[in-house]
From TrEMBL:
Protein name: Solute carrier family 12 member 1
Species of origin: Dicentrarchus labrax
Keywords, sorted A to Z: Cell membrane, Chloride, Glycoprotein, Ion transport, Membrane, Phosphoprotein, Potassium, Potassium transport, Sodium, Sodium transport, Symport, Transmembrane, Transmembrane helix, Transport
UniProt domain SLC12A transporter C-terminal: residue ranges: 669-807, 829-1029
Gene3D superfamilies attached to this UniProt entry: Amino acid/polyamine transporter I (1.20.1740.10)
Bilayer topology: Multi-pass membrane protein
Transmembrane regions: 156-177, 183-208, 229-250, 270-289, 301-320, 353-375, 387-411, 467-490, 523-543, 549-567, 579-602
Bias (Acidic residues): 121-138
Amino acid sequence: MPLCPLGWSKDISDTPRVSSLRVDPKKSPSAFLMERLKSNGGEHVNPAYDSNLDEPPVYEEANGDHRTVRPSVISAFGHDTLDRLPNIDFYRNAGSVSGHRAVRPSLQELHEVFQKVSEYTVEDDGEGSDGTPSDDLESAVPTDKGAVKFGWIRGVLVRCMLNIWGVMLFIRLSWIFGQAGWGLGIVVIVLSCVVTTITGLSMSAICTNGVVRGGGAYYLISRSLGPEFGGSIGLIFAFANAVAVAMYVVGFAETVVELLKEHGAIMVDVINDIRIVGCITVVLLLAISVAGMEWEAKAQILLLIILLVAIVNVFVGTFIPVTTDKKSKGIFNYNSKIFLENFPPDFREGESFFSVFAIFFPAATGILAGANISGDLRDPQAAIPKGTLLAILITGVTYLGVALCVSATVVRDATGNITDIISAGVECTGPAAAACELGYNFSSCAVEKCDFGLINNNQVMTMVSGFGPLIIAGTFSATLSSALASLVSAPKVFQALCKDNIYTILHFFAKGYGKNNEPIRGYVLTFIISVAFILIGDLNMIAPIISNFFLASYALINFSCFHASYAKSPGWRPGYKYYNMWLSLLGALLCCVVMFVINWWAALLTYAIEILLYIYVKVKKPDVNWGSSTQAVTFVSAVSNALSLSGVEDHVKNFRPQILALTGSARTRPALLDLAHSFSKNYGLCLTCEVFVGPRSEALEEMNAGMEKNQLWLRKTKRKAFYAAVVCENFREGTESLLQASGLGRMKPNTLMIGFKRDWRTSSSESVQCHVGILHDAFDFEYGTVMLRMNEGLDVSHIVEQTKVIYYKKLTLINQVSVCGPPPPQVAKMNERLLEASAQFKKKQSKGTIDVWWLFDDGGLTLLLPYILTTRKKWKDSKLRIFIAGQPGRSELDKQEMKSLLQKFRINCTDINVIDDIHKLEDMIEPFRLHEDSKDRAAAEAMKKEQPWKITDEELGIFEEKTNLQVRLNELLQENSKSANLIIVSMPIARKESVSDFLYMAWLDILTKDLPPTLLIRGNHKSVLTFYS
């Protein structure tokens, strides 16, 4: 339905420059904006900028009239100015959580402050936005006041230490050093710390490069590498934390059940008791988490104290004199011989360095515990680097200290029999030499497996310690603290992911509750996942996958740091300077290697899941823009490739049609754009261009408003093209600017595409001269030229709905187009046919032909373009038919020559037709004839000077043969190509200053009249085809 023209209610020239509207603090933003809009009569409003603070300065008049100078405009050096001094508030996101966002005066408001400002609106078709601001979603105005925020010790250091100090410290560390020896054992711990330290350095660099919000690893990766990487790793990282809760709880439950078993208090059986204890435990942990971060933090402090006491208990126990019972179990005081005997590795039962490393490394994967609650930290930029790196140092030293103390006091094998004492005079040799020298004979362990010693007993720490029950308490503390940290981390990360709406189906979990914006829904989901895995009971197959999920996160954090440094974006300015891009890349590679070392199939599964999620997000294309390093590297690569391409000379084999299409607005001539896009597709340059005609001060704002809108429309409709526009006093000058300046280096358009001017007979002479002049300019600049004619026309601008939109923060005011009454049936039917024809080239073409009338050799463009069309899916059912001009009497010979040429060009066609025989035009050109022959000489000369654009009798006589050729060609086209899907004809050329513009338009009109869609093509007479390899 055609719509009435859109316009504001009051002309801009009638409105004053500055509104006198004052802000009523009781009014809503919408009411304020509506009043302001009315007072401005519809002129441009910068919604976030209050012009009341910046009215033109007033001075004391010479006649004695005094007006006060408002201090708010005395902003620099005591002078009255609208300019503002640099301030942090100008650089905040909309709705910043850390302060009010101020908006500086726009360039137009400064540039034209004492002048009339023309109307400036932002147009939208309703497809581009849902009314939400384009700023980062994490900058939304916070609704939580008085939220609990943690410093670097409680928020990061404590959490990381509790997560890194796991059950491995008390149960498996002695076994690892028994198998690998303390030499390779140190390598295992140091290598793990190297990986985590490099990751910590990379994370420190990333989180000090701007404000960090909630979401931890997901936030850091997504804001650095973009939503594709962040969305994929965020989901699997949150899931890994949820399953990790089950792992730690099952570890705790197993210890409890072992104690029940010792005291004969088993409830059902071992596996069901583990399930019962695990479910009860996770319910209690959930209650602590839901109670709030403050309660959870207090619980973590209590668990830390217990854990520290247990660790100290181990060190104290190594100094307490040992009993005979302990000696029989291989535990002694510090002894250099034991220490040296435990130095070399003694791998047993198929273990190796890599298998031992794989068992230990999960103990080091808790370094993100602090970053995962980044939204609850008082100053994440300072807290995360300091707390994480210090936690890695403290826990690494602790692991080494405990392991070395045990290695110096406990032998690898012991019988536990107090009667295995060495007789006097026996020579001590072999693997149990140290125990032998200390008076015990454990040589039987070389024959049969013993129950005690570093390798054989997982309770060595309990026996070494000063008070055994404290180690059990420490084990409980380590498992519960890790479970609690994971139970908090998973919902927090998941909530941040859901808030960004990357996976729309998960947006339900974005809602938070309470002053800390607690993700209650996320807690419930984590609880359900945890219980499901607790009920399975056996997590031996799942554990390696979880470790690999964590390692994949570490690898991407390291790669994010490397990628951001490599892109050399000016926006990469981390406050933490102790990082190196190549060290980060090494860390990423190390993480990948460790993934395969731990479990190769789990690593492959992790990569497969990540790739699938990456592809999903890539295809969905979430509407976010976080300024990722991926964008920066893409830009750097594009510039680099463009520069390298500029150093290579063009070659005919690599010729591609680079289209500059004069479509006007991107959606104004869809048929022209679709055909241009079919020529370039993804493999060539396509520019859809618009010329705004009029004074620059008026047209410039309209152009700026439409730039992003048109490019967005091209992207949404999946047309791989660029939108370009210029402002000029007349259309021809604007097109000339586009022809000369468009493109970059070798990526410049070489083919102009334009629509046929159907109304040339009713248009002004200036309009016709402009249209033909554009063709002359294209030939002058050696462009190939393509003109499309469709009987229904090309321009649908009078049908396209136009909506003008002004955004005021989250409020959208829409001034909808008023709808006129229904158009006459004839007009409605014409519009329907026009819309149907405009969508013709977007659909798959039916079986038919593309008829190519290659009448003149133009370098091959007339043949190349239709061949390119046949390679596209939409045109694959259309076959080429070639029509050529021949000489009477040698049609068969001309046909064979053309067939041979096409074979050399490797272009297939179904038929070759030779036209060897080559009504009237008078009615069409009659209004534009001069008829000077019927006047005397003086009158004829005067008429020529007065109306130089008219067709003279002399000109008509000179070009009579060429004129008749166009008439005859149309007859042949009607006869041979009336049913073709598309007709392509060599475009006739009008010699400058010889053929008048109206005669030339008459040629083009009569040649293409009453035909299917027709393309007139003329190359620049440089070869675009070759038969050489």
